[in-house]
Amino acid sequence: MIFQKNGVTITPLILRSMEDALLKETDGSAILWCGRAATALFWAYRASLNVTTETPQPEVILPSISCAAVANAALLARLKPRFADVDAHTGLTLLKHIKARYTRHTRAVVFIHLFGQTADLKPLAEWCRARNIILIEDNAQALGAKLPDGKSVGSVADMSIYSFNRTKLLECGGGALMLRSKEFVQALEQELRTCPITSEPDDETSSLLELSSRNLHHALVALARLRLQPAPKISDLFLRIRAPFEKLYLRSMKNPDVLAKAWQELPTLLEKRYRKADIYESRLAGGPWKLLNGWKESRVCWRYSLLVHFPDQLVSFSEAVRRDGFHVSNLYWPAGQFFFPEDVCPNAEAFARRIVNLWVDNSLDSKYVNECAESLLNNCKYSHITEAISDP
Ligand SMILES: *Cc1c(COP(=O)(O)O)cnc(C)c1O
After folding, report:
1. Cβ–Cβ < 8 Å for 111, 121
2. For residues 246 and 75, what is the distance between their CA atoms, to the nearest angstrom?
3. Separation of 140 CA from ligand 1 center, angstroms?
4. What pLDDT score was predicted for residue 269?
């Protein structure tokens, strides 16, 4: 690859061994290094459009429980995002949900290994192949994770994307796109050649834009949670003011040396996370929630996640745990409500009203984990369980 524009970098020497390892475990042809996963997604979408059959209004099917960057990058690449519902107990999208969003305009499908959970992707890959649809694996939350058959995430789809940015497994900055076949590499080279060069915003501008984008997202999720406004109204507002944020999506890699070093420490880091997840599990078993346990099979715990049985008190419960000094997040929301509310996803909304994510990263130790578990148990005593939710 000879390009170094629009957020794409030729392989820095120091990343050669990481690149070789990723290509080996995914059986891929090439890796493109970028500043973030959103950039990798943008190029994955462009390559998908290049290799699939022309349609007047190309669409990509995304999981409804997702990160907004996945849909924003699609809009930038001129793909209309459509949203597939998810399994109410894992938040992972299934083939049946994807099938429900299929149209003759579908050109690509994104599967997200949400919170480090994985799934057998072979039936989905077969279904996509039969329709000349490109399958993209989003490994942002699942770096190093194993699929049910023991192979690595990224080993099934046509392309995969990685994030090494803040809040992900390696937090050193950067992203990557893995392309499985030489055909995709050629398609991408063509796209890179024809794409106009865009300049990146300076650090000050991007910090402010990121802050604005994050705050806007939080504000919209809170508003949507209240059900005081119909989803199309919120979506209209969001779509009308999102343009300035497009500056954020095409970014180039800044510190490959930090990533190369962090990559070497990944196995140790994942093991430490795993041990913290183990503590959470032993402390939280039997509480008024369902514990997500996909991390046991995939061996990667991005966040330790629970689905509470008291959705109506989710916000005050999270606030109480935060007041005790612990990180908890409940910011997942069906992305379709902001981008395309016609794609109603009831399971995704039920999931978003119950999900609590706990941190297991390097910044905290097992004492923190134990104390956080204690806080969760104390604070849920006062949560009035309004709905008996049965889990399979
Ligand atoms: C964070 C995230 C992204 C975007 O990653 P960036 O590197 O910040 O662009 C994409 N997909 C998922 C599932 C994510 O969690």
Report:
1. yes
2. 9
3. 5
4. 97
Bridge partners of 329, per DSSP, are 357
38: helix, coil or strand?
helix
Query: CB 27: neighbour CB atoms within 10 A?
Result: 13
Structure tokens at 95: 């083939």
Which residue type does 381 have?
K
Give, in order, the Cα–Cα distances in Å from 252 to each of 4, 72, 79, 173, 349. 8, 17, 22, 10, 34
Q: Give the ligand 1 atom nearest the CA of 114.
A: 13
Strand pairing partners for 279?
none
Average pLDDT value over all residues in the chain: 94
Residue 259 CA to residue 261 CA, distance in Å, equals 5
Work out which ligand 1 atom sits closest to the CA atom of 39.
9
Q: Is residue 170 within 8 Å of residue 164, measured between CB atoms?
A: yes
CA distance 77 to 41: 9
Q: For residue range 28-59, what is the model confidence (pLDDT) as tens digits?
A: 999 999 999 999 999 999 999 999 999 999 99
CA of 311 to the centre of ligand 1 (A): 26
CA of 37 to the centre of ligand 1 (A): 5
151 SS3 class? coil
For residue 146, the 8-state DSSP code is: B
Task: Answer for the pair 60, 110: CB distance below 8 angstroms, yes or no.
Answer: yes
| In the chain, % of residues over pLDDT 90 | 90
- What is the distance between the alpha carbons of residues 237 and 222, in angstroms, rounded to a whole number? 14
CA distance 136 to 70: 11
* Residues 8, 34 contacting (CB under 8 angstroms): yes
